[in-house]
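Collaborator request log, item 7. Partner lab (contact: R.S.) asked for a structural prediction of Betaine--homocysteine S-methyltransferase to inform their binding assays.
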Amino acid sequence: MPDPLSQLLAKRDWLMADGATGTNLFNMGLPSNVAPDLWNIDQPDLVRRLYRDSVDAGADLFLTNTFGGNASRLRLQGAAHRVREVNRTGAAMARDIADASGRTVVVAGNIGPTGEIMVPMGTLSHASAVAMFHEQAEALKDGGADVLWVETISSEGEFRAAAEAARLADMPWCGMMSFDTAGRTIMGVTSAQLSALVERLPNPPIAYGANCGVGAADLLRTVRDFVASGNERPIIAKGNAGIPHLEDGNLHYDGTPAIMADYACLARDLGVRIIGGCCGTTPAHLRAMREALETRPAGPRPSLEEIAARLGGFSSVGGV
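Returned to partner:
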């Protein structure tokens, strides 16, 4: 039987994913020196509220609070031994929220990068990366995640390791990389290289795309390249709510709900199938995005000039 995400994609032209995890938890009081993932254990009511807010705002899919839930990242908090506890608990709470929603809502088990550099440039071996991702994937599966959601990856090697871990866990998965203003990841991977990599994998993702990076306009430029690649696999766009800036010592994003509503419709018109937000995206942004997607008619594929005009321009020197 197909997984819930594939079933929804077969029925719908687009799906809306959730918004930010870390920045929303910071707004709830998460200290900057505490890993968000540990709040699954220490502040479960607030994590449930984060999940519920996303669903109430109209998300068809939301991520578990487990982005940094691998052994390498948790080791920085002295919690490498808590991988299973953190991930299983985060997924189980999400499962409860999704099941109580009264509609089909996909629980996406969130897996972020290890934070280490793979050989030959670094010391992380393929086998070690697979083992870390697999440990996390099994715990997310046991907690009730429908799919694995691998995001913010920067190297082809780490992407391959995550794909192998998903295969070992017998879980469907989605994969995203994060691209900078030059249209490359910090390890130099281009959108064209990611599109080609996805099709070479023995265990390809259900959908792939881009998340985070810089602003929403820059992310949509990358998405245009995915569409131009001719790859028929569903595309994901999860852009930041504008550009961050410090205000009274706190980090704020300048993308308003109205701008993110425009971003969502531009993404849909580009052909993106799964549309969400990343850093700075609040439930207010999500509600505006959902309303716009449901009420504004689909339009022709937007040009780079239109994307720049509606979203405030590009951040990179190559922008329009």
